[in-house]
Amino acid sequence: MKVNGLAVAAAFSPDGPTVYTNSDEGDVYVWDVKSRRCLNRFTDEGCLKGTCIAISRNGQYLACGCSSGIVNVYSRDSLNQSSPKPIKSITNLVTAVSSMAFNPTTEILAIASKDTDDAVKLIHIPSFTAFSNFPMFRRKTIHLAQEMDFSPRSGFFSIANNRGKALLYRVKHYTDF
């Protein structure tokens, strides 16, 4: 499997037969793993340089991050078109998106940038709005988020930072861990 430019991120579909890759030129590739064929290639709308990619655990959404801080969320059903339109462009970050994670129930998308402190946003998926209570206002607690993920039942959310710490947050909406 080969892309134009540099491949900067890849994500397997939850069921396994498809790989999505993002290139530094802003192109998204959809690959069939078995045949190693490119099923589709499209330019991420408004993206100059791709930085990361994530697919929801139910396979419904594909999120593509870029160097301008914009995250485009696509419906997986539209990815067979030559130029699919995102169902939402998330513009809550102002620096390059470096990591993204969907929670297991596909209700939350976490996006982050490692270029500035407290650049982590939690996006409510059905409404595509940012949770205003995270991170806490004027409390510098998240220093340059490197990676993040949710626990298997969404009860916890963890962020690894550049200071060698893994911050662990309890998501009280979910009763199980």
Question: Any descriptors?
Answer:
15 strands; four-stranded antiparallel sheet; mainly beta; 177 residues
Structure summarized in a few sentences:
The chain has strands spanning 7-12, 18-23, 27-32, 37-43, 50-55, 61-66, 71-75, 88-90, 99-102, 108-112, 120-124, 129-130, 145-150, 156-161, 166-170. The protein has 177 residues and is mostly beta strands.
- Helix content range of the residues, please? under 10%
Shape: globular
How much is the average pLDDT?
Answer: 94
Helix count, per DSSP?
Answer: 0
Strand content: 35-45%
The helix/strand series, from N terminus to C terminus, equals EEEEEEEEEEEEEEE
Report the structural category.
mainly beta
- Read across the widest sheet, the strand sequence of neighbours is 1-2-3-4
Strand elements, count? 15
Over all CA atoms, what is the radius of gyration?
16 Å
Stretches where pLDDT is under 50 for at least 5 consecutive residues are none
Q: What composes the largest sheet?
A: 4 strands, antiparallel
**Gap from first CA to last CA:** 38 Å
Oligomer: single chain
Structure overview:
The structure is a single chain. By secondary structure, this protein is mainly β. 0% of the residues lie in helices and 44% in strands. The protein is built from no helices and 15 strands. A 4-stranded antiparallel beta sheet has the order 1-2-3-4, with no helix packed on it. A hairpin with a 4-residue loop joins strand 11 and strand 12. It is globular, with a radius of gyration of 16 Å.
